[in-house]
Amino acid sequence: MTYTSYLFFFGFAVIVFMVYSLVPVKRRWIVLLVGSCLFYAVNSGFSIIYLAVTTLTSFFCAQKLTRIQDDFKAAKKELSKEEKKKLKDKVTKKKKLFAGAAIVFNLGILAFLKYYNFFAEQVTNVFGLFHLDFEMPLVRLLLPLGISYYTLQAIGYIVDTYRGKYKAEKNFAKLALFLSFFPQMTEGPIGRYDALMPQLYKGHTYSNENFTGGIILVLWGFFKKLVISDRISYIVGVVFSDYNDYSGLLIAISAICYTIQLYTDFSGCIDIMTGISKMFGIELAVNFRQPFFSRSVAEFWRRWHITLGTWFKDYVFYSVSLSEPFMKLSKTAAKHFNKFFASVIPSAVALFVVWFCTGIWHGASYKYVAYGLYYFLIILIGTLLEPVFAWLSEKTKANRKGKLWGTIAMLRTLVLVVIGMMMFRADSLMDFFRMFLRMITTFDFNEVSGGLVFTLGTDKHDFFIIAVGLIIMFVVDILKERGTDVLSKVAAGKIYIKWPVMIGLIMMIVVFGAYGKNYGAVDNIYAQF
Amino acid sequence: MDKKIKGGKLIKSFLRGLCFFLILAILFAVANYLTLPRNNTKKNGIYNENAWGFYTEADNSIDTLIIGNSDAYSAFSPLEMWHEYGITSYVSGQGNVMMAEAYYVYLEALKNQNPKVVIIETDAIFPDFSDDEVAINTISDSIYNMFPLFKYHDRWKYVTFDDILNPPNYTWRSYSKGQYISTKIAAYVPEKNKSKENFDKTEIDPFILFYLDMLVNTVRSNNAEVLFVRTPCDKYYVQGKHDIIQKYADAKNIPFIDMDYDTSLAKIDWKKDTRDRGTHLNVDGAKKVSLYIAKYLIDNYHVPDRSGDPELKKAWEEDYKSYQKRVDYLRKHPE
């Protein structure tokens, strides 16, 4: 039951919504919990045990952390300054122990299920290099649905409780709802307890605005996914699997197509889920903010998969930056280098950890590690060259905030992102290098002028519809970038605005959507992570 | 007063919703008309044209309709049945067909045919899908057939101005009457232990059963009779499947011929009569099955010999010649 299937929307989400609306307001969160458990059980069967274990460990660990903190607060009132400091150290150690154990345990489950076989293969290969006959056994492992997302949510919850940002949830069922809420289960966004839980628990009464707004977002998501993403996926599949048969121009076109496919697939699914949540009166975290208007790769990542980026910033970057060894490194750097490098070196180390984790989070493959490190290198080079750029713009009197510079920066970012996406989509790291080499060394314009490009599963009619879809999407995005949220305005508008938009979207999805017997269902890309 | 206002609001909302769906329904109807296949060919959107070729057969000329999956279109030869016994039949077989689709095929056939016997090739009762897939495919097939726009929506690519003015006109004929003609021989050696599949079912899937019941009931309500046939496929024979179908057939009083259960009926030579190592029959295997079934139909269902109808005879004999020509060609030029 994928998010974009009619079975999910009409056979599940709509029914849960109807039951939700009929149940007394106070009990509505229970409908969401039962619905979420049902969704998980249907889609993942016995793997629900993993989710239950993560919920249990997070629940008890956070309870313990809050209790330790409360005890400390009560005890410190009667202590001297010296004694307070001693007790605080002791309490911090204790909290670290509990939080660390829960985090290691949950990360351990994720790591084992997601990376064990990859690790075993590498160990076997290393022994093979030394002609040693050792084979680390492979295990048939089934990755539970959404484990990469709910584990991060659980860790975020534990760390926040550890940091004293909020107190632990006392009701196990409520925490279970936070970790299992079905719209964000398979592709995120990665929710924060303090932002999401109050909304989940509060029973929302039916609101016409929420309902219409939600429906419009759902339609918008389906439009992106079925009309653009799934339609464009065919040429991508053909060229990426047989790239040796095509020249650089077609490889470049397919890399651009994949970037469009990934964006419309991922953001489309997030729109559908955000829309469904909105129908219930629940606002999910924003996961995309017009990423292709970014002027730098760093900005791109602040606009793309935002909840993953902010999660790594809050729970990895800051944790690394504030750790003891890192503080020592900062001090050493400050002693030995000038001001610029003294600040760049420590943050580069922390960034390396963040990007390594971002890469490996996507999957057990060298290409994902390389994907993360690719962005790390670009951001690092950008930071290192910043003084040079500043000097150059001063000398040439170029306005770095001007439109021309901005457009060039956007195009440069786009090129770098497309290359990154190519690495992301290639079957392996070696395939990426071969593809990239082929892209820059071979060129055959006839592949486009001769019409070959239209014979690779995406014909000229498809390209026309994709182009129309992209123009519509571009206009909506550019207006949003300028502060006008068209979809919200339509939802709040009069019937003569609302209805044509809704009916237009429905008709475009039904007629121009890539579904049915002539099309294979295209799985949601980010659901695989 | 409050209640009155609330009631008024509710009626207003209801009427608004009704208007919305009415506009949508009108647009759906227009799009549906525009995207309907203009001919019964694959190019025009008919996914499996061979199975839907009955449209262009003379009205009420098909006395036996054979419904099923690839086993059906491989194992039945309507033209051999005609040539030997004067029986007119058509095979509406589609690879991996779901029973829902098979049911709608029968309804479509009723538009210009009135078959007296409907043979259901029983392999379609256990499609090669998981339970979830069976459910999803059945629901999809039902939606596609109830609302053809969802099935043929992709035809927007080919809609011309003429399509707006002219209604569909089906002209394509299947001279083989739905049979897949293959002379290829890829021998199969039957194994002694016949239960090769992991089969743990004890009953027919509810989604399949729902449409199977509908099909059987609809056939009967049209004063026609049903016959279950399992064509030879020793490779995938499972005793459990036979037992379940037999139980259903007994309950519904439907004759069931299982040519795997009783291999003496068709006398298939697995060294010569299969085109893909036992999965499907070739034309020689199909001839054996068809002649046995044709005789059975005459003896038990009194299906008429239509060779006395000169117009029909002319058309079917021409098709038989084309069929023979194709078979001869394929024998001389192996696939």
Verbal overview:
The complex is a heterodimer of chains A (529) and B (335). Chain A is mostly helical and 529 residues long. In chain A, 74% of the residues lie in helices and 0% in strands. Chain A has helices spanning 6-22, 28-44, 48-76, 81-129, 147-162, 172-180, 193-201, 208-241, 248-280, 297-303, 306-321, 324-336, 339-361, 366-396, 403-425, 429-441, 446-449, 460-481, 486-492, 495-512. Among the domains of chain A are: 6-205, no CATH class; 292-425, no CATH class. The mean pLDDT of chain A is 90. The mean pLDDT of chain B is 90. By secondary structure, chain B is an alpha/beta fold. Chain B has a 5-stranded parallel sheet, sandwiched between helices. Chain B has 11 helices and 5 strands; from the N terminus they run H-E-H-H-E-H-E-H-H-H-H-E-H-E-H-H. Chain B folds into 2 domains: 1-35; 38-332, Rossmann fold (3-Layer(aba) Sandwich). Chain B is globular and about 80 Å long. Chain B is 47% helix and 7% strand. Classes of the chains: A mainly alpha (529), B alpha/beta (335). The A-B interface holds A 5-7, 459, 461, 495, 499, 502-503, 506-507, 510-513, 515-519 and B 16, 20, 23-24, 27-28, 31, 35, 47, 136, 139, 143-144, 149-151, 153-154, 156-157.
Please give the structural blueprint:
The complex is a heterodimer of chains A (529) and B (335).
Chain A: H1 6-22, H2 28-44, H3 48-76, H4 81-129, H5 147-162, H6 172-180, H7 193-201, H8 208-241, H9 248-280, H10 297-303, H11 306-321, H12 324-336, H13 339-361, H14 366-396, H15 403-425, H16 429-441, H17 446-449, H18 460-481, H19 486-492, H20 495-512
Helix pairs in contact in A: 1-2, 2-6, 3-4, 3-5, 3-6, 4-5, 6-7, 8-9, 8-18, 8-19, 8-20, 9-15, 9-16, 11-13, 12-13, 13-14, 14-15, 15-16
Chain B: H1 2-35, E1 64-68, H2 70-75, H3 78-85, E2 89-93, H4 99-109, E3 117-121, H5 131-146, H6 148-152, H7 161-165, H8 206-221, E4 225-230, H9 239-252, E5 256-258, H10 283-301, H11 310-332
Parallel strand pairs in B: 1-2, 1-3, 3-4, 4-5
